[in-house]
Design a protein that fits this description.
By secondary structure, the protein is α+β, with helices and mostly antiparallel strands. The protein has one domain (3-107): 2-Layer Sandwich (Alpha-Beta Plaits), CATH 3.30.70.120. It has three helices and four strands. The protein has a four-stranded antiparallel sheet with strand order 2-3-1-4. This is Divalent-cation tolerance protein CutA. InterPro entries: Ion_tolerance_CutA, N-reg_PII-like_a/b, N-reg_PII/ATP_PRibTrfase_C. Pfam families: CutA1.
Length: 115
Amino acid sequence: MTPDATTARVVLTTTDSADEADRLSRVLVDARLAACVQIAGPVRSVFRWEGAASVEEEWQLWLKTDLARVDDLTARLVAEHTYDVPEVLVLPVVGGHGPYLAWVTQETEGSAVDP
């Protein structure tokens, strides 16, 4: 596969604590829905919710997966998430290091031992 023809995707979400970010990451990697999750935080999020502007500290998760697993990852992420309306953004990967992209696909093939 050439780097220009990748099926890799990055899924972004946020959560309200480092512990919750760790828990979600482990669930999704253990289920082979994500090959890797990087956690950044805290980050400051500014948003409008229920008619009022809010500023909150959150932790951002960058989940690496394959296009074939995006729907299953999204469904599991939403089911496991503590937010009523979690952020779930799916970003295409337009290129990258071929062996890494192949690893992402390989790690997200199949199903988990303990779903």
